[in-house]
Design a protein that fits this description.
By secondary structure, the protein is mainly alpha-helical. 70% of the residues lie in helices and 0% in strands. Helix 3 packs across helix 4. It is globular. The model has no long low-confidence stretch (mean pLDDT 94).
């Protein structure tokens, strides 16, 4: 069993042990927007015993450090687009079609599906413009920064300005995902739910987990890396 240091941040622990992402999800530990909290602090906030949780996690260590943790800024941007952005562009319309279908079929017996649909569409309406801003504005500037020999001149000044906007939007998105989970009863379908009902709720749960990991990679890995790059170039 590996000894887990409870003073390490949740973000550091997921980078070192990517299998912990699922474990943190199951325990309600916010490792994306709250990734700068130590495991000890996060456990105390969630009403968990830090030593017991660290021991449980230590028994589950299976693999190596996450591949994204050692990537450069440009490579990490490519990874985010190829992995998480592509997934979202494919999955968001599919889930919209599924939630519309189950509302049509089951809405009379399950009027709460109207709230589920509204909460899901709020998530989608927030996510899609966010992805566009990253792909068309922030990520190209990060690629330029990564390739530069001297500090580039950006229209926004420092990249910390658009990054601060992304960080704020990540908090809002986290709140919207929490509302969706609440509306969908923790993504547990009812006993009379059909195959489409199950597929819809399973897909929403996967969307939540993937987006949490996506936000973690940006907040706790990419954005600090960009800050260090920018600082080093400015100091030359």
């Amino acid at each position: 069993m590996k000894i887990i240091d409870a003073t390490k941040t949740l973000g550091e622990l997921v980078d070192a042990h990517p299998e912990f992402a699922r474990e943190f999800e199951e325990r309600g530990l916010d490792y994306c927007c709250g990734g700068q909290r130590s495991l000890e602090e996060a456990c105390e906030l969630a009403g968990l015993d830090p030593a017991e949780t660290a021991a449980e996690l230590g028994a589950l260590v299976t693999g190596d450090e996450a591949d994204w943790a050692s990537m450069g800024a440009a490579e990490l941007v490519e990874h985010l687009e190829d992995t998480h952005h592509r997934y979202l562009w494919d999955e968001l319309p599919r889930l919209s079609a599924l939630v519309d279908k189950i509302l049509t079929v089951h809405g009379e017996n399950h009027p709460e599906l109207r709230e589920v649909k509204a909460a899901y569409e709020a998530v989608r309406a927030d996510l899609e413009p966010h992805l566009v801003k990253e792909e068309r504005v922030l990520f190209p500037m990060i690629r330029e920064l990564a390739a530069a020999a001297d500090s580039p001149s950006f229209h926004c000044g420092t990249l910390q300005n658009p990054i601060s906007v992304m960080l704020t939007e990540h908090v809002v998105l986290g709140e919207l995902l929490a509302k969706l989970r609440q509306a969908a009863n923790g993504f547990v379908p009812p006993a009379d739910g059909c195959g489409s009902y199950v597929a819809c709720f399973t897909g929403m749960a996967e969307l939540e987990a993937d987006t949490h990991l996506h936000i973690h990679k940006e907040n706790n890995t990419l954005f600090p890396l960009v800050a260090r790059l920018e600082s080093a170039l400015t100091a030359r």
